[in-house]
Design a protein that fits this description.
Number of helices: 5
CATH architecture: 3-Layer(aba) Sandwich
Order of helices and strands: EHEHEHEHHE
Strand order of the largest sheet: 3-2-1-4-5
Number of strands: 5
Largest sheet: 5 strands, parallel
Helix content: 40-55%
Mean pLDDT: 82
Strand content: 15-25%
CATH class: Alpha Beta
Amino acid sequence: MANFNYSNVVVGVDGSKASGLAFKKALQIATNNHARLVIVAVINERNLVRINKEASVGFGAISPRTIETLKIDVEARVSNYVQIAKDAGIEAIGTVDYGDPRDILTDKIVEDYGADLLVVGATGAGPVTRLMMGSTATYVVSHAPVDVIVVRTELANK
């Protein structure tokens, strides 16, 4: 990938294959640009109590232990990505936030970390999910005040 002089690259990760691909590309972009990499995971509170198959926990009362386990898992995933980036010689930091990932990525994270590029994975949400909730990637592309790369493919073997 070419050098576009990005200095603060933010990548959203959620444990999906698409976000893993996004991390790989964001790492390469940060390497090529000698940029800082900010790895962000957002725990989407609305999905914790939804009645749908995408719900992380399910419908009804959620125990504090369940929420804590989810938080620990997400923090471990982010820490792992941070370590991979640091091992590659990249300045990297990770953060876990709560709320709607669309708003967190396009507003809070961009401002808090001075992002000049957002990298997100295309998760391939079905048409019903997109209609009801909208795609995070689509929202980020439409609302982010900085450049956005939506990742769908593996890195080229070059």
